[in-house]
Every structure is written in C-alpha cells, then in structure tokens.
Amino acid sequence: MYINRMLVLGIVLALVAFPVLADWLTSDYTAWYRPYVVWVMIISFTWWAYRSRHPDEL
Amino acid sequence: MSFSLTQILLVVAFYLTGLFLVALLADRGIISRKITHHPATYVLSLGVFAGAMATNGVIEVAVRYGYNFLLYFAGVGLVFVLAAILLIPLLRLSRVYQLASLADMLTFRFRSPRVGAAITIAMCLAMLPMLALQIQAIGDSVHILAGHDHRLEEANFHHQGVALVTCLIIIVFAILFGTRHVSSQDRNTGLVTAMAFESLVKLGAMSLLMVVAVYQVFNGPADIQQWLQQYPPAKDQMTQQLSIDSAHAFLLVFFAGAVCMPHIFHMLFAENTESEDLRRATWGMPLYLLLLSLPVLPLAWTWMRLGQDFPMAYAGLSMGLSLESTPIAGAAFIATLSASSATIVVTTLALANMCLNHLILPSRILNLGQGGDIYSNLRWLRRVLIAVLILAGYLFYLGLNGRQSLVELALVAFSGTLQFLPGLVATPYWPNANRKGLLAGLWAGLAFWFFTVMLPATRGYVPEIGQLFDSIFGESNDFWTLATMLALAINSALFVVISLLTRTTEEELIAADICSMDDLSRPIRQTLPLGSAAEFADRLTPALGERTARAEINRALAQLQFEDSEGRPYALRRLRRRVEANLSGLLGPAVAHNIIERCIPFQAGGTEDINLIERNLDAPHMQFTGLAADLDALRRRYRETLDTLPVGICSLGADGELLMWNRSMQGLTNVYAEDILGSLLHSLPEPWRALLDDFHQDDSDIILKAEVTTDANNPHWVSLHKTITADGDTIVLVEDISAMEVMEEELLHNERLASIGRLAAGVAHEIGNPVTGIACLAQNLEYAEDPNEVALTAQDILKQTERVTRIVESLVNFSHVGSSAEELQLAPCNLADCIDESIHLLALDREAKQVRFSNHCDRELVVLADSQRLLQVFINLLGNARDACDADGHVQIQAYRDDSRVLIDVDDNGRGIPAALQSQVFEPFFTTKDPGAGTGLGLALVYSIMEDLGGTVQLTSPLQTGPQPGTRFTLQLSETSYDDAFKM
Predict the structure, then answer these.
(1) Is this structure's pTM higher than 0.90?
(2) Chain B hits for A33, Cβ within 8 Å
(3) Adjacency order of strands within the sheet including B648-652
(4) Please, what sign has the CA dihedral across residues B367, B368, B373, B376?
(5) Which A residues 1-58 touch B at CB under 8 Å?
(6) Substitution target from B238, B623, B627 for chain A, most A beta carbons within 10 A
(7) Helix (H, G, I), strand (E, B) or coil at B608
(8) Who among B83, B239, B517 is closest to A27 (CB)?
(9) What is the ipTM of this complex?
(10) Which of B193-197, B287-291, B635-639 bottoms out in mean pLDDT, i.e. has the lowest?
(11) pLDDT tens-digit profile of B653-710?
C-alpha cells in the first residue's frame, strides 16, 4: 500500500496545530481572507502531492 | 416586491426542463464527448454534495459561528485531500467488484445480505432529514418569493403545493434519467452532465449574489472592511469560536457525510469510469468548494447590514427582495433550486438502487427466473422506488411543519450518516472486523442517534437522557455534539468489542483479504464443472430466465473478448467472476453472489492461484514500502531468474492446468504464456501436447532425448525432467539439446574417422598379405605352363582378391554409418553375420588387446534393423568389452527369442562397472577410460541407435563376484524373417 508520507505528516501536523490554527484564523480581524489563503495553500499542496502519481497509485 | 405562485412554478418548470434537455443532449451524444467525459465534468458533478446546506444553510452557520462555517467545506474537502487513505481503496474495490453503494460495499466485505438490508434501512432513515431539508429550502424560498409574512413555521398550503409540484417534476426527471441504465456499472452520461451543469449554475448564481453584495449592498471590499470596523457586533460574530469538541465534531460529521452519504458515494464511485478523474478531483473538488464558499461571508454581512427579518439561510433572496431586483432574487432562487434538485435526484436514485438490491430482490418478491424481461422489471421497480422515496421526503417535510432550520436538519442527517463511518473505515483497514460487531454497533449507535438527535430535532421531543447527560457531563449547551460523539463512541466500541469476542467466518476473512490495503488477495484456483463458456447460460437459466442468462453471458464474453467455445479453466474462472460482477451491478452483490454460488458452484478443494497472485502483485498500483518492498524486489528477481533461465520451465496443476510457462518455453515452442497460461495441457499445439502430456502421465521422471518435429527441415531434440511439489503440482524442465545433438554427431563422425585411422595400419597389413600373395602367384603364373596349375593359381588369386574386397567393404560400411541425414533403412538383418563382421573389423586393429570373441548366436536369427547401424552398435559394445578385459579376456555373444523380440547378451569378463556410475554410462562424453583413450560417445551412440531402431539397451554389472565381475549389455530388437520382409 502506498500512502504519501507528506500527506500523513500533513495530517499529523494539522491535528496537532488545529487549536492554534483556529485561534490564529479568528483572533484578529485584520485580514478576512486569511482562511482562504490557507485553503489555497492546501489545494496547491494536494495538487503537488498527486500530480506525478499514476491514477492507480494515488 | 413579490411573485405569484404561477410565476414561481414556471421558473421551476423552465429550469428543470433545461436540466432535462442538458441530460438528453448529453445522453444522445449531441453534447461533445470531450465535454461529457472531461475530468472537469466529473469534478463538477461531485458538486451534487453541495445541496441546500451549501447554498443556504452555511450562511446561517456563518452568521452564528463566523468562520466556523468553513468546517463544512473543510470536512468535505479533507475527504478529497486524503483520497489516498480512503477514496482510492474504496474506488478500487467498487470498480473491480461493481459496488455502487455503501450497502453493496459493506455487504461484499461482511458477506451477509442482512448487512445490506440493515445499511439500506438505516441509510433511508438517516437521509430523510436531508431530503426534507432540500424540499424545505424550496418551499421556504417559494414562501418568501410569494411575498408572505416572514414567519416560516406555519407554511401555507400554496407554497407546500408548489414544493409538491417541484417534487413531482423532480420525480419525472429522476425516473427519466436516473434509470436509463439498468446496471449500476454503466456510466450515466446524461445524469453526470446534468449534475455538472447544476453545479455550474449554483456556483454562477452564488458568485453573482456575491458580486451584488460586495458592490451593490456595500461599495466594494474596502467598504466592507470599514463597515466591519464600525459595526462591532459583526466583527464579534465573525470571530465567534466554537469549542474544540464541537469543531472536531463538525469536521468529523462533514467528513463522514462526504464519503458515506448515498448521493456523493454514487457520483464518486458508480459514475466514475476513469481513475484519472479522481486524481483531478483531489484538488478540483476542494477548489470548487472554495469558490462556492466565497459568497458566504458577503451574504452573511449583507443579511446583517440590511437587517431583514427573513431567516439568515435565505440571505440571497432577502437581498434580492430588498433591492427589488428580480434577477437577483431569481439567481438566489435558482441557486437553491439547483442545489436541492440535484441532491434529491441523486440521493433518491442511489437509495432506490440500495432498496432494490438489498430489500426487494433478496426477499424474492420478483421471481427472476420466471421469464419476462428482467431488465424492464428492474427499471420499473427502480422508478417506483424513486417516486416513493421522494414522496417520503416530502411527507417528512410536511411532518416537520417548518419547525426546524436547514442547519438543524442537516446536522441530524450528517450525524446519522456518521454511524456508517466505522464500518467503512474497517473495510480496507481492519480484517478482523465481522458482521456481528458491525450490526451491533450500527444498530446501537443509530438507536442512540434516533432518540438523542433525530427525535429532539424533528419532533421537539427532548429525551430524559438529556438530563442524564447534564448530570454526567455537566450542563452543556451543545447537546448535539455530545449526543453525536456518544452515538459514534457506542457504535465503535460495540463494533470493536463484539468483533474481537466473536468468530469471524472464513468467508468474511476471504473478503477482508480482498478488501485489505495491507494484505494481498490470495485467490483460490478452483475447478469449475463446466467444459465451455456456452454451458454457463444453461446453468444460469433457472435463476435468470433463458433470455437474460444468454444476454448476460454474451455481455461478459464480449467484455473479456472470449469466444463462446472458450474452455480454458482460467478463462472460465474469469468469466464466472465477470458474470458475478455484472450481475452485482444489476442485482446487487448479495443476490449476484447467491445466484452464482447456486448455479455455477466450484468443485471442492483447490490451491492458491499463484498466477493471479503474481498478476495482482505486478499491478501498477501495488507499491510496497519497507520489508514488503524488499520481499517484492526479491520475488521479482527470482521470477526474472526463472524467466530468463536458458531452460524451459512449465508448471502443471494436478488437473493438468498450465500454471507457469517461462520465456525459454515460449522461445522453444513458439507458444506465448498469455495464450496458454490457465489452459489445460491438451490445449497445447502438437507436437508439444503429446510430448508433455505423455511425460506428465508417465511414471518416469526423465526423458534423456526426444525428437520434436515442428518443422520438417529443422527437427528439435529436447530432454525432459520433472518433479512433483507438495501441492501436487508438476514442474517440468525442458532443455533444448539440438545444438548438443548436432555437436555429438559431429564428434561421432570424427570418432569414426579416428577409428578408421586406427584401423588403417591393420587394414594395410591385412591387405598387404593377400596383395603379396597375389604378386607371388602372378610371378608363378608367368612361368606356369600346365593349364591345371594356371587354373589353380587363378583361383588362389581370386580368393586373395575377395579377401581384399571384403576388408575394403567392411571399412566402407563402417565409415558411412551414423549420419543423421541418412534415412533409417529397416530391413531383415542376419544377426550372426553382423556380429561376425563386427568381430572381423575389430580384429583389424593390431594395436588393440587381442581378446577372444565367441559368437554363439543362432545362424537363423533375423532381426529388423538397419544393418550398418547395427554393425556400429556391435563394434562399440564389443570394443568396449575388449577394452574392459585383460589380455586373456573373453567376450561372448549369445541371442535368444522372447516372444516376437530377440534378446542379445554381450558378456565380458572384464572389471565391471561400479553401481554409482551405471546411471551415467549412456550419457554423452562420460568415460572411465584414461584421458585421450576414449571420447565417451560410444555408449551414447549405442543408446541413440537402439532408440532409432525401436529397441532398447540395458546394462547389468556385475555378473559374478571376484576380481573380474564382468558386464552384460542386453540388446532387445524385433525379430523378423526374410519372408516377412518380402510380404511387406
């Protein structure tokens, strides 16, 4: 079975950092688009992580 | 500003007719295939998940909980970001085994129709609030657009009527396009394209609302920023924080919903034909959700700024009405309508399939075997079920009577579908899970959810358990989070504990093996009691009816590109698997499995199908890490070694099925592995069939030399060895010895020439004597005058001449023997004369030991042989016997009849042959003589010639005890007579 190691690392980091991230996203209302920036980064990472994989190897 | 119900109904009819046209054009191929099969179309069709909750409900969440509305999109997006962990394994399973729904998947994994029935009932129950939510969104929108008061609790009859008409139009659409393909494995192009179109419409409508909100309600982003600074309640609301527990619960239920809910499962797996599409969806779907979420905050702020009394979820409509803009209000309504109708269509379609496959068909309400058109019956059943389910959702909506918000209904449905997550995760990751644990956990979790989430939210009933919660966990204002997580905990705990405490059946373990991500499926190579593919249809006729059985077999044969006459066991097993998969798409896995097991059962027993296991291991998706990767690399290396060995290797099952055929075998036979693997031995072309079949049946483990003629001008010689494994498989090694055979003949020829050379001195001496005699006689003749003396001298000269002639003839005979190019000329041959000539030729070698030869053969014995080759046999045997003897040696030849055969013993009183060497003496180049004294080809030549003559040669040693134990070579030949030869 193949699981992208970066993906697993990302999940672990997300779980650990979730409370801090939630605070950071909502504590200061200086940039309303901040969550969307994070989201775009996640999309970019996902595209990068899966870009070279054979469809059957995802 | 308000609209009449007729106007609203016309908009609904117009929009749904447009949708109908899109589906129709896509189905008929009028919309280019490049569009309908483009990955973007598939990704957009997944937007079906974004129902009224995504277009309306999240605005309410945003107003109440600020940024936490993003948890909805994040939970769904995570499923795609983490596709490698859950979606890919499930997609692989669903595609290989044609599993179109969650019930199919879990029935396949837990091997029980009861699991499928339970999942179906539970899913229908959990999805009723979701269907009601969509209908309520339409009903409420109609209510607002019709200009009624702002209170939605007491919805009036008219807008409920519009909601009903909308439901009926959706039923027509769902029936027309949802049931066009009777099998769930065929991609429904019209439906997929229509759903993609709906996703585009709602995204477009929401984006339009966002632009209006930002630039018409506010004066651009800067104005929003300024308003937020000046209006603290808005700022405070946006930074409102959920408790970590609630946030986790939200994330989890939306994550679970995105993979467990029937509509998303259907679009993800049943309508997916290309793995590439899912790869695009891993980032495409989160991107779509991001775009869809962008209008949420501006709409929420708009609702707060305008301060209307309309419910928050309808901020778009409220904005349109405030601005008195028909296009804006229309866009808001279309967004809600497209989101709701898409969710209703696909959800009911998927639920109808589940009900049909797991409730109706297993209960045998429909007798499949009793003729009739099964496909038509199934289609009509599915249509009725779709209508019933949509109407059930409508009745549920009526029963709610507007008491609940869209978010409350969504949370009920999402927390209900969360109960399927443990079973789904266990499918690829926990082989020890069993159906008892699954059902116990599911029913307990669902029961808890029903009493603590469903009833309070839909009927206003707060169970006493709520007070119990408060006493145990302290007073909490987040009863939903507590109830949801407790339901999941009860479900998971029971699932794990009961699975560990109870026995997992063999069938479940096999299915777990197939589903497992870490283990490799180990298919069993079993035998079918069928001779050809044509017999499949007869076997299936009692269960499916003749017409359907024939159609299904023809479909499977066409998919596999097999002929009707196909009879290879491997091919028949593949056909059986294909038919089961096709029937699974048609009737569900439980019914399909039952029919196949009943009609086309395997014979008992069987061994692991190594061939298939290797094929699975070589599949491109198999990537191993760590120790598994090392072991796989080792396996590949050994496989490569076996394949590239310069010796042909084939492996046969006990039933004669060919299990292995390496590259050397392919080169030797011109039969390719992919054409022959899985076939029975008798499928091989001649002459290989006869050769291998005879050898397989034979007790002997070795054939030293066999001639194989595939091309008359280019015969092959092979040697065969075999061994039988503990599993009963036979491994056969086939070595091409043609080159060695040619070389052997060349060496034999050289050996013959060398023998002639060695004989030359003796020949010269032998010829010299009569020539000298002739010379003397000729001198005497010159002076002889008496006619009698002249006559006598002439006779003497003739005798001497005959002697010379005989010597020369013998030498010529010997030098011409043994060329493979010569045809074998079997003819009657006097045995004693042949032996005499051999002895005579040997006697010409003056340098050799002079031993005594005694020919005791009956002068009347005639054998069927080629006299020249038989001469060479005796020269070699007698020569070897002479070499083995001491100076006073004695070689005796005697022959006797045995039925129609003649046995000839060549005995010597030499030093004998040790037992350890006796098995090798007939092998080429084996010799016990001193270096240079022998080539080791003599006895190999004897063996070869005797085989050609249809005879045998055997060795016996010792003949007696003592220093000269002696050796006996026994030849066996067919007896004949000159009369028989004449008759022939």
Answers:
(1) no
(2) none
(3) B658-661, B648-652, B730-736, B716-724, B702-708
(4) positive
(5) 1-4, 7, 11, 18-19, 22-23, 25-27, 29, 32, 35-36, 39-40, 42-44, 46-47, 50, 53-58
(6) B623
(7) strand
(8) B239
(9) 0.82
(10) B635-639
(11) 877 788 888 888 888 888 888 777 877 887 788 888 888 888 888 888 888 888 887 7
